[in-house]
Amino acid sequence: MAAGIQIGDVWVPGRVLTAPMTGITDLPFRRLASRLGAAYVATEMVASAELARGRPDVVRRAAVGEGLPLTVIQLVGRDPATMAEGARMAEAAGADIIDLNFGCPAKEVTGSACGSALMRTPDLACRLMQAAVEATSRPVTVKMRLGWDDAHRNAPLLAKRAEEIGVRAVTVHGRTRAQFYTGQADWMAVGEVKAAVSIPVIVNGDIVTADDAREALRQSGADALMLGRGVYGRPWLAAHMERALADGTVLLEPEREERLDIVIEHLRASVAFYGLPLGLKMFRKHLGWYVEQAPWPESAAERRAAKSRLCRLETPESVERDLAALWRPVTHSGNSVVDIQPQLAEAGAT
């Protein structure tokens, strides 16, 4: 597996990319995933019109931050003028790559003739790409689906037009908009896009395990892959999958203490970024996924009960305390339950 992927003048030092996801890939998540070794983590979807008007919440979602190795800002919209202005603002904010969203299937997005609805209006999609490419010196990429529905699978044609306009890479989710997230992603169909263009193609959809990744790359012939929902509760996934693909080993998961440290780091970063109580509220969905994805307790029912309890806590300190109690191993002494960790610490101190 190659060490990375070239997108315009930007070298991405890896081929396992993390998708832009609303409510997920905010600045705290991107900082954490990048620290854990992810090569590419895009911002949440940012509406170009609101970014152009400088709406504070949208600017916050596109917050670049400091110390990130790569900044990818994704824009969504339907007006070429505001798309151009959004691209200029994204470059001014420090974007290394500007991605255009032609793939979101959500009704509130497609109902505004944005996202995957643009695959029904390819001429408008091309005007949006042209506007962004002409407005910025940064490489512009596009994320799309196979088409609106099975009768209109136009991803290869749209990708070809994108390449002619000057788009530097395309990501293709292997479903149509009509499928939303049902059924299985069609990685073979992404191969039709790869055959139509010479720019890099990135395959996306249903990639969770290292075996999924290998098969998606094999079937599509894509240059790289993009993770989406698989990173829920697993911000380390991109980095760990990168290693698994490079050396053919199994996909490793963090042990208890490392995983606990990651969750606490994420919680504290969310609170620092948003403040209280919003930071804790924003973190709760991540907390739920962290608990669901962990192998402790062994019982799924116990994990669900713990998730419900933890997500009702009102302070970050109580979340940290109760999560540590949930994940750290315990042993029974007589009729009492004793935490092993303090015993180990005391033993090591003598």
Helices, strands, pairings?
Elements lengths: L4 E3 L2 E3 L3 E3 L8 H9 L6 E6 H6 L2 H6 L10 E5 L3 H13 L4 E6 L4 H4 L11 H14 L4 E6 L9 H11 L3 E5 L13 H10 L4 E4 L5 H11 L3 E4 L9 H11 L8 H19 L3 H16 L6 H11 L5 H12 L2 E4 L2 E4 H10 L1
Parallel strand pairs: 3-10, 4-5, 5-6, 6-7, 7-8, 8-9, 9-10
Antiparallel strand pairs: 1-2, 11-12
Helix share of residues? 40-55%
Mean pLDDT metric: 91
Element order: H for helix, E for strand: EEEHEHHEHEHHEHEHEHEHHHHHEEH
Q: What is the strand arrangement across the widest sheet?
A: 3-10-9-8-7-6-5-4
Strand content: 15-25%
- Low-confidence runs (pLDDT<50, min 5 residues)? 331-350
- List how many beta strands DSSP finds: 12
Structural class: alpha/beta
Summary tags:
single chain; 350 residues; alpha/beta; 8-stranded parallel β-sheet; two-stranded antiparallel ribbon; 15 helices; 12 strands; 15% strand; globular; disordered C terminus
